[in-house]
Amino acid sequence: MTISSLTSTSSDDLETSNATIRQAKDVDEQDFLRFRPSYHLIAPKNWMNDPCGPCYDEKTGLYHLLYQYNPEGATWGNMSWLHATSKDMVHWAHVNKTPSFTPQLPHDCKGVFSGAMVPHGPRGEENMLTAFYTAVSYLPIHWTKPYHWGCEKLAIATSTDGGQTWNRDESSVLLESPPVEHKEDVASWRDPFISAWPEMDDQLGLPRGKYLYGLIAGGLRNKTPTAFLYRIEKEDLTKWKFVSTIADVGLNHSLGKASGEMGRNWEVCNFFTLPRQSPQTGKDAQYTLMNVEGVGKDFKSRHPMWAQSSMTKSKDGKGVILHPFKSGILDHGSLYAATTFYHQHTSRRILWGWITEDDLAESRYDQQGWSGCISLPREIVPLSFENVDPVMLQHSLIAPTFDFSKADQSSTTGVKISTLGVKPAEESAALRKGAEYHYIAKPSTAKLPINSRNFELSFEVLINKESSEGGVSICHDADGKHGVKVVYSNETIQVIREGTTSDPDVNTSTITVPFAPLRFVDGTFERLRFHLFLDNSVLELFVNDRLCITTRIYWQHEEAIQTSLIRNSGESNYQNVQIWSGLQKAMLDEGADADQDALGIDGVAHL
């Protein structure tokens, strides 16, 4: 559960509004639509944040995604869950117009915080959904504040009608508090995640497949961020038994430049295995996903990140400790609260995240009547590269994030290295139907055939000693002004937003991220592959499937809709340019022009 800066006061003190599209007198329709994206999953109105409970139900063919929602206004508060479903992961409809869960029971009277979901009953019942969430009964809660024991509980809810209605009552609490052995040092404890973990079975000496495992994210005050590991009876998901905390990395630990800082507290933690043998452990690569708080000199920054770890028994022999030896940032921009699910039907791990409104002053949220959206689905993949120059293994941007053996460091021939990658899920291609398409093998001019703020763009840049920069200027005017520049130069990727607006309520600072293209033993360099999605104010950028930057652009100049490749003093070699202009709308149930043919009488998308 991501907690806004507004949590310094209780939810009762939070200012709320009744802003609604085309209904509320205090929200102008032009204000509502000015920066609103069209092909991202988004709430009908008001504040939204963390994606919760992503899963796929093979029996119905539906993807489920719930998210944190404030039914009372466009700023943080009254934390509830709204529920959307999809047949293809990119076209969505809400199950109900009202939240599935709201703060109404004694144990969750102050908020229904983030959690997980499985597409069956707690004892394996068919035709049922089971949600696990953090029930909050006291505010404020924050890792910087004294912990109020018992303010966070693990609770369960079930549905037998596809999420139309949910069953939960005072008996729904599964865990009353964090483990009592951490009563004196717990800093936070929330955001349950549940999955099988065969490698943890092995580490604990248990038969594979008998148990599932749960993680509840948090931290130990002034000691370390961590997650609390629970063993769950596979035949009865209401039985959670504490095993141990899984990390003892200390405060603000980092493995190196550009590999991410592990901060002081974790939110929304996942674990997963990728079928790639690690040269350091000799086993399949083990990963944890953490949304990290308390980053930086002032401890106010945050980011989603991953860590590859080895496992050992804890000192008392009863639990397990993960030892991170490689790590990286999942997104260097405004995406947070990333979470995943394993798509068993296709053997893929799919990630979603919350795209924040942090670059717009909070005082403006109620004026536009909404805040935030959900990212396009992303796939987490293992990336491997062969014939890499072994000198690269000493590079400060490569060593902390790529997996390789010690022997590789002294090799005189090309080596194989691996890392974790993130790319747009293939399902995003469904948004292209009906879009205007252009393919340019080798562009002869800088200007691209784009005249809108709704497009997908991909292109390649060949890098060599004579040509070491390249990029694109997005949505500039006829004089080349007011655009956003996405540029690679001197081992950095920059998103330069200066000039897009003079509005003092908008952050237009440049985002600069270190990025080193790989060099191979034959002297050639890894080509740069840019893949961008622009959806009005939302920009999602992927570079070589191993760097992501999501950011917001609050455009001021309506005439600035042209896009061009950047040609500097050294002629950059661009090739394989692909453009899709006019991607399809994501929300099938939004607005007067909602696609009624795609909506069933149950309000669920049927594509």
Report the structural category: mainly beta
Question: In terms of per-residue confidence, which ranges show pLDDT below 50 for 5 or more consecutive residues?
Answer: 5-25, 592-607
Range of strand content? 35-45%
Average of pLDDT: 91
Biased composition (Low complexity): 1-11
Keywords: Glycosidase, Hydrolase
GO molecular function: sucrose alpha-glucosidase activity
Pfam families: Glyco_hydro_32C, Glyco_hydro_32N
Notable traits:
607 residues; mainly beta; Tachylectin-2, Chain A; Jelly Rolls; 43% strand
Plain-language structure description:
This protein has helices at 29-34, 198-204, 365-368, and strands spanning 46-57, 62-69, 80-86, 92-94, 111-118, 129-136, 152-159, 173-175, 186-195, 211-220, 224-233, 236-245, 265-277, 284-295, 301-313, 320-329, 335-343, 348-355, 370-371, 373-374, 378-388, 415-424, 436-440, 447-451, 454-462, 469-476, 484-489, 492-496, 511-514, 528-535, 538-543, 547-552, 562-565, 573-581. It has 607 residues and is mostly beta strands. The chain has 2 domains: 5-376, Tachylectin-2, Chain A, CATH 2.115.10.20; 430-581, Sandwich (Jelly Rolls), CATH 2.60.120. A hairpin with a 4-residue loop joins β1 and β2. The longest helix has 7 residues, at 198-204. The two termini are 31 Å apart. The model is unreliable at 5-25 and 592-607 (pLDDT under 50).
In brief:
The protein is mainly β and 607 residues long. The protein has two domains: 5-376, 5 Propeller (Tachylectin-2, Chain A); 430-581, Exo-inulinase, domain 1 (Jelly Rolls, Sandwich).
